[in-house]
Write a structure and sequence with these properties.
This is NELL2-interacting cell ontogeny regulator 1. With 90 residues, this protein is an all-alpha fold. It has a domain at 56-85. It has helices spanning 2-31, 42-83. The termini are far apart.
């Protein structure tokens, strides 16, 4: 009978500890929450990401365009040089 009283007290103490730990964790979580007014919205982050991606695509397109133009000029020069005799180039 006495051991059942000790078991009840132990279970009660364990329940109180769990409740106290849960309350302490809840206090810590609410202390770290940033108010909604001061944090950017998800749409703003998505918009900024898409802007950066678009800028990267524009740079890539410009680089490809410049590279293509260089390759076309090089091919035209080769074709021109292949057509002309070597002594007329001097």
């Amino acid at each position: 009978m006495a051991s059942s009283g000790y078991a009840q007290v132990a279970v009660l103490l364990l329940a109180v500890q769990l409740v106290c730990l849960g309350a302490a964790d809840a206090d810590q979580e609410t202390g770290t929450v940033i108010p909604a007014e001061s944090r950017p919205c998800v749409d703003c982050h998505a918009f900024e990401f898409m802007q950066r991606a678009l800028q990267d695509l524009k740079k890539t397109a410009f680089n490809l365009d410049a590279r293509t133009e260089t390759l076309v000029l090089r091919a035209e020069r080769r074709a021109l040089c292949d057509c002309m005799p070597t002594n007329s180039l001097r």
